[in-house]
User: What shape does this take?
Amino acid sequence: MLATDAGRDDCVGRRDRAHHAMTVEIRANTELPARREVFELRTPDGLSLVAEWALPLDAEPCATLVTFHPLPTAGGFMDSHIIRKASLRLPALADIAVLRFNTRGTTSPHGTSEGSFDEARSERFDVDAALDAGRALQRPPLVVLGWSFGTDLVLKYARQPGVDAVVLMSPPLRHTSEAELAAWASPVEPGLSPIPMTVLVPEVDDYLRPPEAIERFAVVPHARIVGVDDCKHLWIGEKYVQRALNEIASVALGEPVELPTEWRDSTEETP
Assistant: This one.
């Protein structure tokens, strides 16, 4: 079960107050207030990866989201639009801290991570570095998001202590073995429940569609498969962005969330 405490009530209260102050429509490139910290992730095998934390501007995070981007050899990076928009919106709208980074050998406007693409093999060290950073923030629940190639990294390497839930978007299951997938049906440690898993599957995905996803993920009985009507692999379109971020926030905050689509900074309010 995801963590719930008095801090959760504070988070809900902040979201409610922010909702009443919102007057500006949130568009594709809207950047909401946050504390943004570009830094280097150091991997266990000695590489430096370009990374960024996006944290709530004036509050402690209610949850931590660690993200893994799509395939770098097909243009995926830490600025892939769903991950970028998660970092631009979720700290302000839901008090969620968002970590995004370039896996080894990946270039984005933030810079290039050391190393080279290794087809989901030595990327295991990138996963370890990112999860270590997420745990170090000490703001549970720790939720892990993978999109496309990022889902393979999550499924192969993110079943670790301290991970409270995973969200998978457009999983191709290209690099994940049946044994690696089936392992998620079991707890990480004795006495615990298996890590909750939400799988968001576009209806017209290029690689895996909802009927096939239901079959492939049957080895993880508790996995929640969510088909997204008319959506494609890349989640292009604001209505699909909103759907993805609502699902992610709902998992992170442990309750159904419909994020506001408008915003006005509370500092702009008149007395």
Q: What stands out?
A: Residues 120 and 153 are 6 Å apart (CA to CA). The chain has one domain: 11-186+193-266. The chain has seven helices and twelve strands.
